Amino acid sequence: MEITKDVIMENINNPMTLEELYQSDKKTFSETIKTMYEPESNLIIKYWYARLFFKSLNEPKDIKSNKAKYIYTAILIIAAWLPIRLYFSLSLDKFADYLVDTIPVICTISLSLFFMFDSKKNIKNIALCLLPNIIMYIYFILLPDSSDTLKYEKYDSQSLDNTFIFMFILFWFFVLFAYSKFNIKKLNYSAFLEVFGETIVWSTIFLLGGATIVGLTYSLFWAINVDFTDFIMENIITLGIVACPFVSLLVIEKFNKIKLSVIIANIFLPLILIPLLAFGIISIFTESKPYDDRDIFIVYNIEMVVVICILVFTSINGIKNKFLNICSYILPVVTVILDIVTISAVVYRLSKYGITANKITLLGTNIFMLGHLAYMIYLKTKQKMEQNVQYLPLYFLWALVVVFVFPFIFKSS
Fold it and tell me: For residues 181 and 394, what is the distance between their CA atoms, to the nearest angstrom?
């Protein structure tokens, strides 16, 4: 049984079931109780919170442990930043290309190691953290780039571009595996998605604040005719961008009761429904259709990705507001219609312009998104919307196909 807020509330008066849930996955149960706890919470929730977090409430904080984590995080930030810094320093084109391939791999490993700080760092877990990323790195440096004309022409450039895009889905799952302590059978999707959403929001806040400070600093030095452009670009900005997610994760741990991503997702739920409905209705009466207009076709796909992300984020914490709940019923239905139109447009473009890596990738992606939306609608009728995260492994499998199979299927003879 998956541990969610709804499941805990359904069994709130069944102590045996709650204990079984706790024993089955202590980490997930504890994190769920932590997110549910409020001063006016149910007495049983208060009891479990006191039981699970008694030490953190009554003992002084372990300063040494916090200091160790800050140093550990600083090392990870430097490790993730070094390839970017070297990229600006070295002028060797071929080595620079290798560095570009290294950057997402090193960042993924660094984020994975961050989540492994509190867990046992045995050889097995370290190997599981490093091995998939190393395989991805070797694979990407073996794939041809545009500088190697003879090899590059043997591959479909669209397929290679899609490989680079879909690899980030694989990297996302690699970090999820580390967050879940490599317990593949019990991946903690809900908690990780919540952390992921919070990290995006906090990182955006820090980036905006950092950009303002850097802009003001640059203006001050410019006023006295001192040009620090290269130094700021190569050091301050790059280090700030890399550090943002790590600093955000530390902030999230410190202020775990603040759920900005949930608030923002709930705000955007009705806001995206209104323009989506207007867009769908108006597009019926316009000449621009996704069948022949590539820009409209791209907009349709972006809309669907945004909708699915918002629905997933709102579902993991539940929706208590009646208006938002109605919107969460309408939005996936409207998006299903949009997705069907998009799939028909892909089929039309395939029949008219022929088979390409892009079209097949888009067709598969839209079919998977249609399945996810249909699954969401089904779960919504059963009041089990939070279970939609069980669909996410299918995106991982599809990304594996796009990354490791399509470059060779669409390879020129």
Answer: 21
Nearest-angstrom CA–CA distance, 109 and 175: 8
pLDDT in tens, 34-72: 888 877 778 888 888 888 876 544 444 455 567 888 899
Q: What is the per-residue pLDDT for 284?
A: 67
231-283, pLDDT tens digit by residue? 888 888 889 999 999 999 999 888 776 778 777 877 888 888 888 788 777 76
Q: Which of 392, 390, 265, 258 is nearest to 327 (CA)?
A: 265
- Residue 366 CB contacts under 8 Å (≥ 6 apart), including other chains: 301, 304, 339, 342, 343, 346
Percent of the chain with pLDDT over 90: 21
- How far is the C-alpha of 266 from the C-alpha of 315, rounded, in Å? 10
**Do 388 and 380 meet the contact criterion of CB atoms below 8 Å apart?**
no
One-letter amino acid of 183:
N
Phi, psi for residue 26 in degrees, rounded to 5: -65, -40
DSSP 252-267: HHHTTT--HHHHHHHH
Contact present, 360 and 349 (Cβ < 8 Å)? no
pLDDT tens digit sequence for 155-170: 557 778 888 889 999 9
Long-range contacts of 136-143 (CB under 8 A, 24+ apart): 136/105, 136/167, 136/170, 136/171, 137/101, 137/102, 137/105, 139/403, 139/404, 140/101, 140/164, 140/167, 141/98, 141/101, 143/407
Per-domain boundaries in the chain: 5-58, 63-186, 261-382
